[in-house]
Amino acid sequence: MINRGKMGYSEGELESAGLGEMAEKKWKRKGKLGHGQIHGSNKMEVDETKRAEGSCGWIPYTPNNIHPKDQPLLDISSQAIWCLSSCKNGYGVDELMSDSVEKYWQSDGPQPHTIHLEFQKKTDVAMMMFYLDFKNDESYTPSKIQVKMGSSHQDIFFRTTQSFNEPQGWTYIDLRDKNKRPQRVFWIQIQMEIPKCEMPGIPIDAENLEIIETPSLFYEKLLVGFPYQSTRSIDTFFQELTSKTERRLALSSLYLGEGELEKNLVKKIRERMEQIDIEVTILLDLLRGTRKSSEGESSVTVLKPIADKAKIFLYHTPELNGLVKRILPQRADEIIGLQHMKLYIFDDNVLISGANLSDSYFTDRTDRWFLFKNCKPLADFFHEIIMTVGDTSFTVKNDQVVPSSKCDIHPYLGGSQSYRDLLKLRVETVIEKYKESRKNQEKTESETWIYPVLQMGLLGIHQEFQLLNQIFAMKNSEMKMTMASGYFNFIRDYEDLILMEGDYRLDILTASPFANGFFESKGFSKYIPPLYSNISEQFLLKQQRNNRQNVQMHQYFREGWTFHAKGLWAEHNNQIMTLIGSSNYGYRSVHRDLEAQIMVVTKDPKLVERLREEKNRLFEYSSLLDMAALQQPEHHIPPIVRVISRLVRTVPIPTHGTCAYDGLTMADPNDSLAYFQCCKNLWLPKFCVEGEVFDKIKLICVPNDVPPPPPVPINHHHHPSTTSMS
């Protein structure tokens, strides 16, 4: 939360989401952004009188080294258009800009909490001042504030980050250049970081983590539940499925293939259900699960032998509705959002992967597979997540796909926001239940801990996003990181942190065009491999511009195989952390899909070595991907792909924020080519036909010979300067 403080901050309330925790946070602060000079002490002592002075209390705490030409210091807060990352009703920009400390901004979304400001013309900016009160809000005073400035989000020429250690009173962030002069900007982003409470971990014995090396063994594990030897024949594994699975079996995947291996898996599940009373739950994505092959089969038809006894759920994103759902081609509808979690549960054993239930994932597709054995807390948590999403989805009943009896709001007919609110409430209830159950456990010493991590950006659940923001911002040149993704397409947040903030070594492994599953496809799909080549090229160019020499890319190629592995490894001081799961760390993973991962942290020497060996196996078939490699014929990028890539990477991200005043548009901070009417969540094009210009007030294209309207007054936000003009 933030109150008025001359383009700054005061008191308010934030909702913070740490690793799994969604809790309202209180944060006292007040601040200003000014230009010019004032004189006064730089002391940080605070009293209630100065606090009550509101907009004037900051004056004594500005720095002394203000250039004479920049006198006097002026408050320019009212000259900007403000847009918040989120807010609750009655706690928006009006309250943010109020001089009263009783009024404040209260966010209504996950971290990072941001404020975007746009000036109508280039404006000189010198500094920003904040009132921080750690004693009043010990837990939720910001630990870090980052400021970016430039012409737009795509043209940032200044950034600075300031950390705080138990601050109390007025402090400032200096935004001047190296000559101590103000900088001229159109656009400013202010991002706050609040200390977060992580999702509780689970101690495990390192021997209960089995790393599966090949796709065929992954398939065998699915058949048997949890075998203890990986050298047995498939026939033996079939028998073990019957003898080992006692209570529950839950499979969560994007889809189930239609081949013989998949049908054999369903057959074995059916046999087990006939022999013992076990609970079987299947969660797939509806868009992929009902898509028919050329033979007329789909995931739903393959599952028909168990449909009478098993719970078969099909998740449908609420964002695909109305006209878009009617006109979007079937093979393109999945770009809107998917159920993407890859979780396979047998009693108290959890097999997690990035692999789907399809024949190529069982034979010749490189992926990662971890089996956590005898881990009831983990199995219970993920089983409840699967059931919760399933109960709020469609189900297969009497050969028909109908909404679940517990789905109180239709996924795409009942209102997108209402459905999201319902599913979010239910998922957060599972998260809170898990956290509460871990609180009652005695403190345990263990060399290996595991942490479930969810990413459901559509619902405002950003555990993975927040975790990766912390990891990628680390400054430790001795740390070694490795990242893998078959579809490398970092969001800009990750790119900026890696290339502009971090100083660790990072190796990125992605699929070569030959190892991309869409290589030599027909139709539009043939452009997918060069699309990722173009994204890699842009990343490498950005890496060169930022002189981040210890970041390298590698490409995977193994004759006859495709590459689908995804994950993150961080090594330091004989300890290792790895993330394994469904996320590709791209735009869809962060904002559109339902993702699940597990973070493993260990200092057990044997497990550390096993994790290193697993990572090194992926690099056995890799080569350096640099600008020279991108000149090879397989990386040829057609001109149309460069255009498509630019459009794909600048798709506006709607936020549920608020404007500085009703009816006006705000330049989208993530895309200088579009405007966002943030009060109404409407995206509007900036471009008009020749001879016309876009009127940001009327929100229409008008002839370019029409004189522009005068600046809209913002009287209810205008406050007299705290100093007089000289």
UniProtKB/TrEMBL annotation:
Pathway assigned to this chain's UniProt record: Phospholipid metabolism; phosphatidylglycerol biosynthesis; phosphatidylglycerol from CDP-diacylglycerol: step 1/2
Broadest EC class assigned to this enzyme: transferase
Domain (DOC): residue spans on this chain: 52-238
Highest taxon listed in the record's lineage: Eukaryota
Domain PLD phosphodiesterase residue range list: 335-361
Molecular function GO terms recorded: ATP binding; CDP-diacylglycerol-glycerol-3-phosphate 3-phosphatidyltransferase activity; chitin binding
EC number(s) per entry: 2.7.8.5
Keyword Nucleotide-binding assigned: yes
CDD domains, per database record: APC10 (cd08366), PLDc_PGS1_euk_1 (cd09135), PLDc_PGS1_euk_2 (cd09137)
Pfam families, sorted: ANAPC10
GO cellular component: anaphase-promoting complex; mitochondrion
Major site of localization recorded for this protein: mitochondrion
SUPFAM superfamilies to which the protein is assigned, alphabetical: Galactose-binding domain-like, Invertebrate chitin-binding proteins, Phospholipase D/nuclease
Family: Belongs to the APC10 family. Belongs to the CDP-alcohol phosphatidyltransferase class-II family.
PANTHER family: CDP-DIACYLGLYCEROL--GLYCEROL-3-PHOSPHATE 3-PHOSPHATIDYLTRANSFERASE, MITOCHONDRIAL, CDP-DIACYLGLYCEROL--SERINE O-PHOSPHATIDYLTRANSFERASE
Name the record gives this protein: CDP-diacylglycerol--glycerol-3-phosphate 3-phosphatidyltransferase
Taxonomic lineage from the root: Eukaryota, Metazoa, Ecdysozoa, Nematoda, Chromadorea
